[in-house]
């Protein structure tokens, strides 16, 4: 029943965001074509598009024009994709595959991967600042501020540093440290995704807080489920090498809580997320379905 | 005579920007302290502070409050410094020293250098978007847009890709290609520096264009002089290994034009720059002195 309303909406959002990125990213021409091609390679390779979906759904609650929401969502996805490109670098996670395809530094080279990541991050702010994103410059500025904070040293990038620290043998993160790390590394941008939709819709402070809280819980539930999949999953389903964290002896929600308690915690968070958006009634049906899907997914 | 008005102003700006960065960068606390320390290491290590000086001087023409101009200048310097951190990486220029000190990936590690660069870039937009930068959100948004465009795929990052392409044996760039590469790699941010001062001061379109044109010519004059110093300089003066470009067989203004014509061209550009700001009278005295200094400098 959940999938009845969610699957088509997720598929439509993924298709729309793919088209939006295709249209909004700079065309591959001129002497810097290699960079522009790498930017596209990094972003147009599919993925769940969870974050853009959140922006589109949050904006949809307030009847924001879809073309505006898509620009903001595309900017946010550029930031997410840049972070994957840099995370995959040999000096970081050293991954050769991403969604079953060679990572950017494998398909191009390491220098191009660093620069394509830099370019995507920069371009995201360029996209948000442009008039097409919203008539009101104050709204655009607020989007810039939200995205910068969510992805900066106290957000995603800070979380990545903590994640690297967690891998040092003997780091032995406890539940509080793992939670903090995940809230920064993945949670901050997921929250920003929902909040940007609210800002585009000039939501009331209460509505904005509710969407932030929803995304906060959704993000943690998503991450705990990722850790569960990392333990239980198979290469076929996730498209990347699994049980990698366990092999490294790195603390995760599952290594600390165990499978059963981790699963229960993810489900509790998903229900909490659902409650946060109850105030929007049927307008939040797909967000509700998403929260349940996130903990039930198999990949 | 030139140095009489320029040296103290440059020193004061360098000191002010150092203090502003010290104050504006996140304090080094919490589990992500290593990242925050690397951000400071990358930015608080001195340097000419040419770009912030341009912002301060351009803003000064229009009596912009110095604390606002310093915030914008600090944001811009964060972007400049992030680009140096990434340029120095082993996969790029592979430099061990910067301004006579170990580069960030040497003083910390490669992953931290990538992430500290990412964090500085992101933080720059955070700084610009915050209310302290300017009362008017439209002005802040315009600063964001200028900085994003100057440092993105068609600006600084694009220029870096062209610079890497120029190093491929047999690339054999001609004057047009070298000029385009330098305009993107260093010129775009130098232009943005002056333009951001003009925007803060709500300069007329004519005044803004004049300052852009000044910075355009100054940037090229600066780069040609850099190439001359690369050939003529000594390690003691520039604090980095010299004649590196020549050793790599890479095309530069000097390799294409020869020393004499390159020097004449730099001087012509500096005079052109001076003419662009003549409309500001004595308010541009220091910008005038700077243009002359840039081509006369020994390091």
Automatic annotation (TrEMBL), chains A, B:
| Keyword Metal-binding annotated | yes
Q: GO CC: one term?
A: cytoplasm
Quick check: keyword Chaperone in the entry? no
What's the protein called, per UniProt?
Farnesyl-diphosphate synthase
Note the NCBIfam families from the entry: FPPsyn
UniProt keyword list: Isoprene biosynthesis, Magnesium, Metal-binding, Transferase
Q: Which family does it belong to?
A: Belongs to the FPP/GGPP synthase family.
Q: What is any Pfam family matched here?
A: polyprenyl_synt
User: Which GO BP terms apply?
Assistant: terpenoid biosynthetic process
- GO molecular function, a single term: prenyltransferase activity
Q: Per the entry, which co-factors are needed?
A: Mg(2+)
């Amino acid at each position: 029943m959940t999938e009845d309303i969610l699957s088509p909406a997720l598929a439509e959002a993924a298709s729309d965001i793919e088209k939006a990125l295709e249209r909004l990213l700079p065309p591959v021409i001129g002497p810097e074509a290699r960079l522009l091609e790498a930017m596209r390679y990094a972003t147009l390779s599919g993925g769940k598009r969870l974050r853009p979906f959140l922006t589109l759904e949050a904006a949809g609650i307030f009847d924001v024009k879809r073309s505006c929401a898509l620009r903001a969502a595309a900017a946010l996805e550029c930031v997410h994709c840049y972070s994957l490109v840099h995370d995959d670098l040999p000096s970081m996670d050293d991954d050769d595959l991403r969604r079953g395809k060679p990572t950017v530094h494998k398909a191009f080279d390491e220098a191009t991967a660093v620069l394509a990541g830099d370019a995507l991050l920069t371009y995201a702010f360029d996209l948000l600042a442009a008039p097409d994103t919203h008539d009101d410059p104050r709204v655009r500025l607020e989007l810039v501020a939200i995205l910068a904070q969510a992805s900066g040293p106290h957000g995603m990038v800070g979380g990545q540093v903590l994640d690297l620290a967690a891998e040092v043998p003997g780091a032995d993160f406890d539940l509080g440290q793992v939670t903090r790390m995940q809230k920064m590394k993945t949670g901050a941008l997921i929250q920003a995704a929902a909040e940007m939709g609210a800002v585009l819709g000039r939501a009331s402070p209460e509505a904005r807080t509710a969407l932030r809280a929803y995304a906060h819980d959704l993000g943690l539930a998503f991450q705990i489920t990722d850790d569960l999949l990392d333990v239980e999953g198979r290469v076929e389903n996730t498209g990347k090498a699994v049980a990698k964290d366990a092999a490294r002896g790195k603390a995760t929600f599952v290594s600390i809580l165990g499978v059963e308690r981790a699963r229960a915690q993810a489900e509790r968070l998903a229900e909490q997320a659902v409650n946060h958006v109850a105030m929007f009634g049927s307008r939040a049906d797909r967000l509700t379905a998403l929260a349940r899907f996130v903990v039930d997914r198999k990949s």
